[in-house]
Amino acid sequence: MTVLSVNLNKVALIRNSRDTTSPSPVDFAAVAIAAGAGGITVHPRPDQRHIRVSDCLALAQSVDVEFNIEGNPFADPMVSDRAGVSDYPGFMALVEATRPAQATLVPDGNAQLTSDHGFDLRKDGDRLAPIIAQLKDWGCRVSLFMDPEPENMALAAAIGADRVELYTEYYAVAFAAGDYAQVLDRFSQSATAAHNAGLGVNAGHDLNLVNLPEFAIPHLLEVSIGHALTVDAMRFGFAESVKRYIEALAARVSE
Fold first, then answer.
1. What topology does CATH give the domain 3-251?
2. Is 43 a catalytic residue?
3. pLDDT mean values, one per 10 residues, the chain (255 residues)
4. Does 219 participate in catalysis according to the annotation?
5. Which one from 43, 50, 165, 222 is the annotated catalytic residue?
6. Is 117 labeled as catalytic in the residue annotation?
7. DSSP letter string, 164-232
């Protein structure tokens, strides 16, 4: 059974639009878990425009399912200029303080609106290897955000990663255009290559209730979904949306 990890970034973004503590990511993590989510994901950015350092610390203490922190391990600390917001200590310092079950490394820059590409391990592999080793010493499973390129999966295994998270926007765009068979095959080949290299397979980005049941790739252990689930929550309610995504995963026809 593929695990649904609910990304709470957009819950925090709504909260941050006002000087308030509501909605609380901790409270909505509890709702998601009660509805059947097997994981909780956050992706703090250095400017803390949505998930904040304080959220990560609180969730680490309260979540009793897999806690997954995503981010760029090369991100520098950032001093906050907002009252009530802690300074960002850097991704590695934050992981050391929270010790999540999984650390997902993503090559996003501070100015990016959202993640939009995977790692180039021929460029960054040597820099990532000692970071991965440190994260594993802290007890974290390490996943690398990767484009669906089968030939690069063995590179992720060679530098010590435990899993890859396949960046699925390519699939979502092709699905919306109505011609996605070739793109989906590329994801299947990548998942198979990762599995053959000894890696677990995660996936995430722009998966939704419409395209998720057709995302029929093998060896898929986990999907991380936040934006689409939060949008659906405005229609169906948060708990009901979590349940619908779990049903969509169960309906997925895997190879």
1. TIM Barrel (3.20.20)
2. yes
3. 96 94 97 98 92 96 97 87 78 97 88 70 96 98 98 98 97 97 98 98 97 96 97 98 97 69
4. no
5. 43
6. no
7. EEEE-HHHHHHHHHT--HHHHHHHHHHHHHHHHTT-EEEEESS--TTTGGG---TTEEEEEE-HHHHHH
